[in-house]
Write a structure and sequence with these properties.
alpha/beta, Aspartate Aminotransferase, domain 2, 2 domains, seven-stranded mixed β-sheet, four-stranded mixed β-sheet, 12 helices, 38% helix
Length: 446
């Protein structure tokens, strides 16, 4: 049984971890990033233990995947029950109850008026690919709009929309034709050097006032693909009117508003979907990550009038796997029974504590977020806002050594995305560790 964390009893990485890491490096692709030398053995709730018996408090949740924490007993029971019946039957060609039940559940929980349809995939990137094909098939229009700083996946179609880091795209062209990237609503680093709200939310009007005057006819745009809150780009929360103005433009021109909720959705922000914070109804929603508590599952939920493709047009051998469907049904029940509410409460607590730290440490330039999707952006100087990328990485690495698992995003943002089961005392513990690390960083800068 795993007890409270952190508890570090060996140098990191330990002896057993080094053995696994050496084998991994010898036999696996060099493309894997491997943020720090953590080798997991087991987990429970928000606590994970490595192969040397060191225990860590996890505030990254497998990159926002383990929504219900590690090995939630209800999810484990659901998967075990299904495993005893059957592992697989191809959902493209045959039927099973959990597949239909999950589709029904998702249509109920997704905030769109009217009838909806669902297509299941194995991952977020595959769900993005599905949405691209769906848009092209239905609209017959050549153009798609995405955003600078966006991350939609690494498969070729999804990568065509991604614009987070140059290294993710380098040497992989040519990309999907007809994709245009525009700046996101990043008020802390406004690409137009304007100030909210005297700016008139120019970032939301740039597509209509600039792009569609100079580059393309809006009637040729099939879809706008957008993250309600940017994930890999830096946990960026756009101004309130950003999505509202873009959606109004889309509606006026018959453009589908496709919302990528892969990281922000599934209760992480305190609501089932992050787009709900902005009062906008999407046309297509892309989900994955926390949808099945760690089992591979993605989904595209669209208004039924847009999912018009004929049988055989698109399919998936493993999408909507029976084990993943059962895990997802239990996950969604747990979200509705209290985990979304806990994400809102604990997120408010964490956000408040981080903003208090910003008043103490000059290196913190901005703290932003919704629920348990919070970013703390570090800067070398608050006036110039020069990103403190080196310092952000050093804090993430030092936190690992202290038994706190974190990840960065954007240029110099530390993200906080713990499992939605996180408790107040665990938030306090994480903030105490972070405070010590910020003091150490501050000392080095003095």
């Amino acid at each position: 049984m795993i007890v409270k964390a952190p508890h570090i009893k060996t140098p990191l990485p330990g002896k057993n971890a080094k053995r696994v890491i050496a084998k991994d490096r010898r036999f696996t692709s060099s493309s894997y990033i491997k943020e720090y030398p953590f080798v997991i053995a087991r987990g429970k709730g928000t606590v994970v233990e490595d192969v040397d018996g060191n225990r860590f408090l996890d505030f990254m949740a497998g990159i926002a995947v383990n929504a219900t924490g590690y090995s939630h007993p209800r999810v484990v029971r659901a998967v075990k029950r299904q495993a005893e019946r059957f592992f697989h039957i191809c959902s493209t060609d045959f039927y099973y109850e959990s597949f239909a039940r999950l589709a029904e559940r998702l249509t109920r929980m997704t905030p769109m008026e009217g009838e909806k349809s669902v297509f299941f995939t194995n991952s977020g990137a595959e769900a993005v690919e599905t949405a691209i094909k769906l848009v092209r098939y239905h609209t017959q229009r050549p153009y798609i709009v995405s955003f600078l700083g966006s991350f939609h996946g690494r498969t070729m179609g999804a990568l065509s929309l991604t614009a987070s880091k140059a290294k993710q795209r380098s040497f992989f062209s040519s990309f999907l034709p007809g994709v245009h990237h525009i700046p996101y609503g990043y008020c802390y680093r406004c690409p137009y050097n304007l100030k909210y709200d005297s700016c008139g939310v120019h970032c939301a009007e740039y597509l209509e006032k600039v792009i569609c005057r100079n580059l393309m006819n809006p009637k040729e745009i099939g879809a706008i693909f957008v993250e309600p809150i940017q994930g890999e780009g830096g946990y960026i929360v756009p101004p309130p009117e950003f999505h509202q103005k873009l959606k109004a433009f889309a509606e006026k021109n018959g453009i589908l508003y496709v919302v990528d909720e892969v990281q922000a959705g599934m209760g992480r922000t305190g609501k089932f979907l992050a787009i709900e914070h902005f009062g906008v109804e999407p046309d297509v929603v892309i989900m994955a990550k926390g949808l099945a508590s760690g089992l591979p599952l993605g989904a595209v939920v669209a208004k039924k009038k847009y999912m018009t493709w004929k049988a055989g047009t698109h399919g998936s051998t493993f999408g909507g796997n029976p084990l993943a469907c059962e895990a997802s049904l239990e996950t969604l029940a747990l979200l509705e029974e209290g985990l979304m509410a806990n994400a809102a409460r604990m997120g408010k607590r964490l956000l408040g504590k981080l903003r208090k730290l910003a008043g103490e440490f000059e290196i913190i330039g901005d703290v932003r977020g919704r629920g348990l999707m919070i970013g703390m952006e570090l800067v070398k100087d608050r006036e110039t806002r020069e990103p403190a990328a080196k310092e952000a990485d050093e804090i993430v690495q030092a936190a690992f050594q202290r038994g706190l698992l974190l990840l960065s995003c954007g240029e110099s943002t530390i993200r906080f995305c713990p499992p939605l089961v996180v408790k107040a005392r665990e938030i306090d513990t994480a903030v105490n560790i972070l405070t010590d690390l910020l003091r150490e960083t501050n000392g080095k800068r003095a």
